[in-house]
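Propose amino acids for all 98 sites.
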């Protein structure tokens, strides 16, 4: 039974927003936005916050996914090559008879 027919059943609500930001704003528009938005946070970091920061380089997610798939395929291929390199193949173990 779908959730909409059960008024006390809670579900997840997903909202997808598409926001188009303008290239520039006039000073009057900036002031109008400042009146409706929460106050600005301090842009200056404390020494403690700066010490906790870590410098990083951003990468395109699509390229990372492709690289991960390539590495996984390469690792799987290497695993098969290692099996082929073992002399005499795999050793067989038999159960002891009692």
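Proposal:
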């Amino acid at each position: 039974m779908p959730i909409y027919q059960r008024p006390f059943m809670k579900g997840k609500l997903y909202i997808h927003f598409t926001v188009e930001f303008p290239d520039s704003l006039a000073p009057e528009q900036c002031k109008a936005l400042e009146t409706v938005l929460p106050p600005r946070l301090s842009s200056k970091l404390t020494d403690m916050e700066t010490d906790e920061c870590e410098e990083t380089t951003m990468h395109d997610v699509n390229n990372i996914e492709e690289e991960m798939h390539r590495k996984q395929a390469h690792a799987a291929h290497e695993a098969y090559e290692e099996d082929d390199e073992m002399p005499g193949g795999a050793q067989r173990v038999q159960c002891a008879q009692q």
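Residues 16 and 80 are 45 Å apart (CA to CA). The chain is about 40% helix and 0% strand.
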